[in-house]
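Sharing a chain and its predicted structure for anyone who wants a worked example. Both blocks are below, sequence first, tokens second.
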Amino acid sequence: MATTIQREGLPHREMHEVHRIEHEGAVDADGHILEPPDLWDEYLEAKFKDRALRIRVDENGLEELEIGGQRSTMSRRGFPATLGAMGAADLADIQRNPDRTYLHEAPFGSMDPNQRLDVLDAENLDAAILYTTVGLLWEAEVEDPELSQAYTRAYNRWIVDFCRDSGNRLIPTAHLSLSDPVAAAAELRRAVDDGARGCYVAPFTHGAVPLGHPDNDVVFAAAQELGVPFAIHPTFEPQWTKGARMGTWEHVKQLRLTASVTASDGVRHQFTTLFDYGVFDKFPELKVLVLESGGGWIGYWLDRIDAVYAHTFVGSRVPLDMKPSEYFMRQVWISCDPDERTIPSLAERFGYDRFLWASDFPHADHTPEYVHDLNDLVAMFPDKHRRAFIGDNARNLFGI
């Protein structure tokens, strides 16, 4: 019999090791929080309380998510405790050890806004754009659009409250579920009115509707009207989105590097559908942000679709008035990792105002050492473009 974890209050936590960014004006374009375990119990509307997202303890003493009143099939066997692992070398022990829990492994600054501001000060960060963590997991398992919309509304109310008194340094973004585009557009309007500065979506829907499909025009129209960026962020996805190219699980579980470099394929695919459906012509002031998928691939991607558009029969059947790269330079921003050394060359070609950097704090692929890579990367930019990359691009995009 599984038991529900009750909120114990945040354990005492010292700040982890940090390093200082050498350049002034830095803005983290994609940081994360860890949601308090009782968020959905507190913020979910009464109608849905019995199906709140919860962290529970299984029969082996390990944590798992409860989603819609059911045990998660993807986030279980101690996985929740690893969500704030921050590059931990003992990730396997965190997941297998019943004493290492989601709440008690949460790093300094991941659940408390005042602590997060202390981290920003220590790293010489002006601001951080904040995204969810648990919200990256549950949508792959929820096929009920009404419940999906309720989960996003609860989270969005909470994240705005989390950031509200930060002096414009913690920037909330709304989680939208395209399970019901009309409801998602309404939630975007409500959330922005409450203080959200942008929105983001998963790279799939259970109905397999491409992101650029006209069904989603109502959401694009709302984002354009409100002037807020519309982001695509990687999440857990249903297995059907990955296909069966690699055959059995015995093969797949060995392909750790393959899984890592292809984890953001869904984002890249959905981003490209925006061109297939002519979204940028229909919504010429829409701001699209591509997150946590790396930035180096965009050079090949734009070269390829530009060539197809300009020189092939396939391109003649795409409803675009300009080359895809021209829409990118007009309406798209992309985040990169601090260790990507191709970014300055790509920025020179496609626009110094198109590229942002992101930490991914406090997830497993974040380590405090990112600051050294970031300092080196910024130094590779021409002097006059460093300020834009380190912070002004994000500042302008989000109206900070």
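Comments welcome. The CA atoms of residues 173 and 198 lie 5 Å apart.
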